[in-house]
Amino acid sequence: MFEASLYQKRRTQLKSRIKNGLVLILGNNEVAYNYPNNTYKFRQDSNFLYFFGLNLPEFAGLLDVDSGEEILFGNDVDIDDIIWMGAQPSVKELGEKVGIHSTRPFKELAEYVKKAIIAGRKIHFLPPYRYRNMQFLEDVLGLHHSMLKDYASLELVHAVISLRSIKDSYEIEEIRRACNIGYEMHIAAMRNCHAGRKEQEIAGILEGISASYGSMVSFPVILSQNGQTLHNHDHSQTLQKGRMMLTDAGAENDMNYCSDFTRTTPVDGVFDQRQKDIYNIVLACNEKAREISKPGVTYLSIHLNVCKILTEGLKALGLMKGNTDDAVAAGAHALFMPHGLGHMMGLDVHDMEDLDQIYVGYDEKTRPATQFGTASLRMGRELQEGFVVTDEPGCYFIPELIDRWKQQGLHKDFLNYDVIETYKNFGGIRIEDDLLITSDGCRLLGDKRLPVTPEEIEIAVNG
Ligand code: GLY
Ligand code: MN
Predict the structure, then answer these.
(1) Which pLDDT belongs to residue 463?
(2) Is the CB–ligand 1 distance for residue 351 below 6 Å?
(3) 444: three-class secondary structure by DSSP
(4) pTM
(5) What DSSP character marks residue 145?
(6) What is residue 346's predicted lDDT score, i.e. its pLDDT?
(7) Percent of the chain at pLDDT above 90?
(8) Distance, CA 414 to ligand 2 centroid (Å)?
(9) Which of 247, 242, 284, 243 is nearest to 263 (CA)?
(10) Which of 71, 161, 283, 391 is the most buried (most CB within 10 A)?
C-alpha cells in the first residue's frame, strides 16, 4: 500500500473534478468457483485500489463532493472469522492507513445512498462489471442491471480516466517491478522452448513464477505454437521442431500493477530464413513505434506508421504489392495484423477497460476507426507524458481469414494471394514491450529488455 497522503491527494483531485453529489466507488467481493466457500484468488477493483488502496473484499468508498466528507464502508470481523482467518485490523484502522477517518458498517451503505437519492442528490457510480456490484446498484438505485452502464456517471468516468491515465512516480516504480517479474517469466519460457515440451507445462511455469511474487498473472497466459490465433489460451500442443512459440504473458505485482510482454521464439532456438524475415519486419515495426512515440502524437498515427513498415516489409518479400500508403489506407495490411498496436497499462493490463475503451483510448479529437484491423486499436489518442502503453505489432497468417479474403477477392491490388498461400502454415509473430511516455519521447519499462533480436532469442533458448 502507498502512503495515506497519496490516496488523500487522489481523492481530493477526484472531488475537484466532479461538480456536485456523491461519488460511490464499490470494491469487489469474493467470487465462488464451484461452491460458496471455494473462491478464486481475490482481485480488488482497480478504481477502488487507486483511490482507497485496500486490497480486501466487501468495502466501498463514498466521497461527498459538496461537503468534502469521505466515508469508508466495511465490516469488522467477528470471532468466527478470527478463528478461521486470524486477527484482522478493524475497519477504523484500515481507514486510517488510507487517510479516511470516518468509517461505517457495510450494511449502512444502501440506506445512506437511498437517503441521498430521496434528498435529490446525484449519485455518481462507475459502470459495474461484477455481478454482486450490479445487484447492489440495482437494489439501491432501483435501476435494472441492464441499464446500469447507461446510467453510470460519465462525469466520474472522465474524471477517473484523467487521473489514472497519467502514472505518477510511485506507479511507474510498481510497473517496473511488475515488468521485472514478466522478464523472468519470458526468460523461463524461452529456456523451455524445446521440441517435445508441452505448451501447458511452460504456461504453468510462467503462472508459478508470477504467483511466487505474491500475486498472479495480469491476464490468462497466451502461449502457443499456433501463434496465428491472437489470444490463444489453448495449451494442448506439444512443441514441434520448425514451429515458433508465441508467448504473450505478464505479471501483476503485489500492488496489482501489471506488465505485458510478447516474444516469439523458434522451437529449439533456431529461426529458419522465412521466419527470420518476417520476424525482422515485426521487430522493425516495434522499434518504429518506440522511435516515434512522444507527447502530442496520436497513437493512431503511430499505429498507421507501423502498418506502413509492415506493408513495406511484406512487399519486399512479395506478399504485398502496390503503393504502401494506398494499401494501408485501404486496410489491406490488416490481413496480416488484424489488431491494434497497443493499449494503456497500469493497474489493469488493459488499463481502465471497465470504463469503456472509447473514453480511455479516444477523445473528441481522435475518434475510433471503423475499418477492419484499425478498429481494434484500443488506444488511439494523443500521448501525454506519464502514459504507459504497450507496443505490440504482429504479423499472422490466419488460414481461415486468408481463404475468406481470397474468396471475396479483397484488396487484390495489394495482396499476392499466390505467395500468401505458401505461408498458411507459418503461424504468427508478435513482439510486445511496455513503454512509458516521457517529456520528449518514451522509454522501455523494466530493468532489462527481454531478448528481442533473432540472435538474442536464439542465445536465450540455448543458454
Ligand atoms: N497481452 C494481451 C493483450 O494485450 O490483449
Ligand atoms: Mn498487450
Answers:
(1) 81
(2) no
(3) strand
(4) 0.97
(5) G
(6) 98
(7) 99
(8) 28
(9) 247
(10) 391
Give the whole-angstrom CA distance, residue 337 versus residue 396. 6
**Residues sharing a CB contact under 8 Å with residue 97, sequence separation 6 or more, in sequence order:** 1, 4, 53, 54, 89
Ligand 1 atom at minimal distance to the Cα of residue 249: 1
- Angle, alpha carbons 40-42-44 (nearest 5°): 140
Ligand 1 pocket residue status of 458, Cβ below 6 Å:
no
Residue 87 and residue 73: Cα distance in Å, rounded? 19
**Quick one: which atom of ligand 1 is closest to the CA of 390?**
4
Residue 234 grid cell = 489453448
Strand bridging mode 32-35 / 38-39: antiparallel
Digit-coded pLDDT (tens) for 196-243? 999 999 999 999 999 999 989 999 999 999 999 999 899 999 999 999
- The label of the residue with cell 511455469 reads 205
Q: Which phi and psi (to 5°) does residue 303 adopt?
A: -55, -45
Vertex 308 angle, CA 415 and 408, to 5°: 25
> Do the Cβ atoms of 213 and 254 come closer than 8 Å?
yes
**Which pLDDT does position 91 carry in this prediction?**
98
Q: Which atom of ligand 1 is nearest to the CA of 342?
A: 4
What are the CB-based long-range contacts (under 8 Å, 24+) for 138-143?
139/110, 140/109, 140/110, 140/113, 140/114, 141/113, 141/117
pLDDT of residue 150: 94
- pLDDT tens digits, 54-73: 999 999 999 999 999 999 99
Nearest to 134 by CA among 120, 118, 150, 122: 150
Q: Tell me phi and psi for residue 283, to 5 degrees.
A: -65, -40
The finding on whether 433 has its CB within 6 A of some atom of ligand 1 is no
- Report CA(241)–ligand 2 centroid distance (Å): 27
Grid cell for residue 155: 462525469
* Of residues 224, 306, 230, the one with CA closest to residue 265: 224
* Nearest ligand, CA 249: 1
Domains and CATH numbers, the chain: 4-164 (3.40.350.10), 169-461 (3.90.230.10)
Rounded Cα gap, residues 112 and 258, in angstroms: 35
DSSP string, 232-261: -----PBP-TT-EEEEEE-BB-TT--B--E
Closest ligand by atom to 221 CA: 1
Measured distance CA(13)–CA(373) in Å, rounded: 37
* Helix extents (H) in 17-57: 46-52
The C-alpha atoms of residue 284 and residue 158 are separated, in whole angstroms, by 35
Q: Is 34 exposed, middle or buried (0-12, 13-18, 19+ CB in 10 A)?
A: exposed
**What is the DSSP-derived secondary structure letter of residue 175?**
H
